[in-house]
Amino acid sequence: MPFDLRRAQSTRPGLLGSVIVVVGALFVVLAILVAVKASLLFDLDNYVARSTFGFSEGHDGFVSVLETMEWVFSSATSLVALALAAAFAWWRRERRIAVWIVIATAVESLGNPLLKLLFKRDRPQWPYPLHEIGGYAFPSGHSAGAGMFFTVAILLTIVLTGRGWRRRMLIAFWVVFGLAIAISRIYLGVHYLSDVVGGLAFGSFVALAAWALLMGDAARHPHQLATATGTGKKRVAVIVNPIKVGDIDVFKDRVNVVAAREGWNEPRWWETTIEDPGKGQAHQALESGVDLIIAAGGDGTVRVVCDEVARTGVSVGILPHGTGNLLARNLGIPLNVKDALDTAFAGQDRAVDLATYSSDAAPDTVFLVMAGLGMDAAIMTGADDQLKSKVGWLAYFVSGVKSARFPATRLQISVDDGEFVKYRARTVVIGNVGFLQGAIPLLPDAQVDDGLLDVVVIAPKRLLGWLAIIVRVLGRQRRTNAKLGRMTGHKVVIRAEKPTPMQLDGDAIGEGTEITAEVQPGVLLIRVPLAPGPRV
Length: 536
Hints:
Tumour Suppressor Smad4
């Protein structure tokens, strides 16, 4: 997971500053009301305190949970967690992030006790307290620590993950978790509502203000040369699979906006058809003299476009709209359209390998991701299209369970024109990249630009044999045996004794008995995210 500070830059200018002002103003207003002992705040605090205390008083188990939360999420726990986060950033040579965490933590840890001494606000008083605790109440130390910790966690989540459901889920988790810790202080009867809101505001303000001061100028912008490609005239073509994209007009508007923002000319558009999935369109785009061709679709669309564009010096941008999107995943290209557009128009070119492919199951072509025969092809064939539209790549998992008893096939494999070696395997995969969906390292040593093809032969004898294989794959074990064999080379030939299902970049292509694949090193330019700049 690379740190990318550009991810923390909002598309709305001044958003961070506005949030800092709002959070800071909230704390200041609460502090003034507490200092002057405003009756409105006093009445609200007491009403909430009585209501929450009355609920907790009759639920001993609930109180035990609250006391456990107090112990687990104490100030010491937050300090240890933040220290580990700073150490991780330092180890990753993100020194400025590490310094930000340390300074923000120090300011919150020292500032909160000083504020308590300044306001000297007593805690709620009860005839029979649920929990005994000393010290002053405003602002809540647990809440300030939670505000600090979870604001740091949210910012780190943003710089470590791209836009999408995973980032949203993580941010929602941090927010809910932080609020739960703060609210627990009210239900435990040791703080007023204003104490915990003030604590959250103080801790969050410190983290955000320190970020603005220390990290505001640290975002890494694209270097001018990184966006230059082709003739430099910034002419772009977009080849789109209308079945995958959906609302073409909305999609075109989004692409046009980003193209204009990044200084590219208005895009030229071509749509794929069933009869021509991208080859003719890519040829026409090249004939028109474009500097960049963007392929919007699944791995199949990308493969056909790249086949035509290879060796031309024109770069290909990828807007993933398929179920697998394995090439994008392996190249670190974001899967959401907004970030993928930023990469296509303002990324950098990477020379990657292409593999030629010939078999008796389909016309000669190429692949960028993986080719194979056996069970993996049966999984592709068995994946339900309607299920794929609903749950995405998880449909392949369902198909995989159904195909677990796919019979072994007798076959022979030759690498780099060497002698054929006999196998009895459930599936054989030739990979130009190494990772499947879910970051499963099927071919852990495979690199898209190493000039080699990686091969894995999977041959469990029984259904339970899959467990050992799964452990070895997930553990990235490289040893070879009869159940899971690995090999690498420039050319791979596979011969099966009978017609066997075959797949190409995730698309089932029918049954055949022979495959020949040969790598073509560095013949294709793909737009990928900018590599992190110098670390401070």
